[in-house]
Amino acid sequence: MNSLRLLILGATGGTGRKLLAQALERGHHVTALVRSPDKLAPRDRLKIAGGNPLDERTLRALGAHDAVISVVGPPGPGQSVVMRECARACVAAMTAVGARRLVAVSVALLFRDAGWLAAVLRRTVLRGTVEDAAAMEQIITESSLDWTIVRPPRLTNNSRSEGHDLAVDHLPSGAGSTATLGRDALARFLIEEAERPAHVRQIVGIAASTHIAGDAR
Q1: Which domain holds residue 69?
Q2: pLDDT for 55-81, tens place per residue?
Q3: CATH number of the structural domain spanning residue 155
Q4: Paired strand residues for 103
């Protein structure tokens, strides 16, 4: 695999740190756009850029990358526009500089077949997050970019060797309201999708593998 120039948005969050570490381990050159550069330590092949990932001019000034991976999320379960505004700025900036590949993390709660608990959460405590994620997805899917939207369930800090299952437009078979996914597994899939695009212009459900035999644990 040739080294890619990756732009990571949300690199100081739980998933973002896993993503950053794995991308560098795989030999890629990474730009991390973060509000607080002091939260990241300098490393080889890492460019730390201070700025607001919701600002189109800031993103445009970073130039084109082989792929942009966004793991930007809201600060809490209340009302938020962070995801949609990041998507709006990112799509506009990528279009302006001629970049094509965008991999963005959303939420599995948007799947209507995600189970009864998801239905309750969509209407109550996570309503703001779901509305923001839905607006983000609309901005991305209406763009001309080569996008992939990834919808994981509740994220955990499970073993890095955790296996995962995939499905297009659904959570994987066997994954329901109690499905989870390790942040390491999510980060690994995001990088692999940037390296070898297999789900261009698709919405992908991902969850920890429900299979026992043959799982990588």
Answers
A1: 5-208
A2: 999 999 999 999 999 999 988 777 899
A3: 3.40.50.720
A4: 69, 148
